[in-house]
Design brief:
Elements (H helix, E strand, L loop, with lengths): L9 H10 L6 H8 L8 H13 L3 E6 L7 H18 L6 H4 L1 E4 L10 H17 L3 E4 L7 H13 L5 E6 L5 H10 L4 E4 L14 H17 L4 E4 L3 H14 L6 E6 L4 H9 L4 E7 L4 H10 L1 H18 L5
Parallel strand pairs: 1-2, 1-8, 2-3, 3-4, 4-5, 5-6, 6-7, 7-8
Bound molecules: flavin-adenine dinucleotide.
């Protein structure tokens, strides 16, 4: 690999590194993505959860794994969650901080077999209920929106009241979904949305997405529903802080959420101001796809780590500097 020229404009260099990720050794990609992933093992994840809890933050644990095609893979993901939940139940920290997981339905069998995904999520929710914990159902791309809402509602109707859902502010349908969820007293995480969606169903411009985001938060706040403001965007963070003050929301009605490794200074500011903060903590053997997504969003991290690695190699060369 040719080391990046030190005279190259850093941003161009960083973007070039990100474009070349598919050709880079996995160990280097793993190093670059280290800030965003708790690690490959459950022990790594528990250490991260304990560390954040000790610093006053909540966490939601995510077992990495997407795009599966076999029942056994869905069952393996379920079992990984059950093992994680057993460990979360043993942590000596306030329950609401650490007893929280996020699940992606496609990793648990959505798209393979409706019964399979239902039973897998039910098993996770049941295990979480035993330790008085909470399960957040992540929202994936639009072919799965209806099925995700349906499964969430079916499980809630069957008595699983420790389930929450996610809504995406870029989807034009979401306002109607949120009005209904608010009437049902749902616990809702609000995000912009991370997938590339057709223009017919999703806003593309940031002003519309942000306006929609704050509208959704207002609907939930006014209905007295618990809302998780999941964003790293200063404009939205400010908007949500203003909303909390205006509606006089208690701390058990809202929280801010951020991804592990992203905007830690903003996270610390919110915590310092007394707002509840929860960090999304992904871990697991299938770290690669998640890592590439995070690095694409922030090429600077890729650039820093690649430079540090190359500097290390140079120092180890005979006569290196
Ligand atoms: C806790 C949590 C859960 C989520 N769950 C879902 C889900 O279930 N479904 C879904 O579709 N989407 C989910 N998302 C992703 C979300 O939809 C957005 O794609 C993502 O949060 C980026 O949007 P943003 O609001 O943070 O604003 P952006 O405008 O993307 O980011 C604002 C600023 O944050 C900083 N930043 C952003 N990303 C990085 C990074 N990787 N490294 C360093 N700095 C960065 C940059 O300074 C950027 O300018 C989730 C996000 C969070 C935080």
């Amino acid at each position: 690999m040719t080391p990046p020229s030190t005279t190259t404009e850093p941003r161009l260099r960083d973007r070039a590194i990100v474009r070349s990720i598919p050709m880079l050794p996995r160990r280097l990609v793993q190093r670059m993505s280290a800030p965003y992933i708790a690690g490959a093992s459950l022990d790594d994840a528990i250490t991260t959860v304990e560390g954040l809890a000790a610093r006053g933050m909540g966490t939601t644990l995510d077992v990495l794994g997407e795009a599966i095609s076999r029942r056994e893979e869905a069952e393996a993901t379920r079992d990984a969650y059950l093992a994680a939940i057993a460990r979360l139940g043993e942590i000596d920290a306030p329950r609401e901080r650490v007893r929280n997981v996020s699940v992606k339905l496609t990793a648990l069998g959505l798209g393979i077999d409706d019964r399979l995904v239902h039973d897998n999520v039910d098993a996770i929710a049941a295990a979480m209920a035993e330790i008085d914990g909470f399960v957040r159902v992540d929202m994936e791309d639009s072919p799965y929106t209806d099925a995700t809402l349906e499964l969430y509602r079916a499980l809630r109707a069957a008595g699983r009241d420790n389930l929450g859902i996610v809504v995406q502010s870029y989807l034009k349908r979401t306002r109607a979904d949120v009005e209904q969820l608010a009437a049902e007293g749902a616990r809702v995480r609000v995000v912009k949305g991370i997938y590339v969606e057709p223009e017919a169903i999703a806003w593309r411009d940031m002003d519309s997405i942000n306006r929609s985001y704050l509208d959704l938060c207002r609907i939930l706040g006014e209905a007295g529903c618990h809302a998780a403001y999941a964003t790293h965007d200063d404009r939205l963070i400010d908007g949500c802080r203003t909303l909390v003050a205006e509606l006089g929301l208690d701390k058990d009605r809202y929280e801010f959420q951020m991804l592990l490794g992203v905007r830690e200074e903003a996270r610390a500011d919110l915590l310092g101001q007394g707002h509840p903060v929860r960090v999304y903590v992904p871990f697991g053997a299938q770290w690669y796809e998640y890592s590439v997504r995070r690095l694409r969003e922030n090429p600077r991290v890729a650039g820093h780590v690649a430079k540090a690695t190359i500097d290390g190699w140079r120092r180890r060369l005979p006569g290196g500097r």
